[in-house]
Amino acid sequence: MRKTDSLQYRLCTSLKEDIKELGRYNIDEICYMVFKNLQLSHNSVNGLRLTPMGFKLLSKRYDTYKFPISETGIQKRLLIQLHRNMQWPYFIDKKFLYLFNGDDAMWMSLSGSDVEKFVKDLS
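RESULT FIELD:
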């Protein structure tokens, strides 16, 4: 798949078209502003974790589903699994995991809103 066909590029292209302040940036720059764990190469794009700016922009356009995170937070190994397995954007702050896909939200609910169980079910 060409990187321009990726979900990240399509979302950022749409943002650039709709938000005139983003017009001065190229799509790669916008992708880095929107996605925290973005990895770009000539023919691939990885990483769907949103930056705070990305979350602010996308949550105005799409439904979000909010799930509490345990007080210990999300461990690094779970972050790696989310990075590898998520197919839709997500955002993590200190207290919540926000999902942008209804199916993901349903699976999270079925796992008792347990992030660790949800991530195990992804792989």
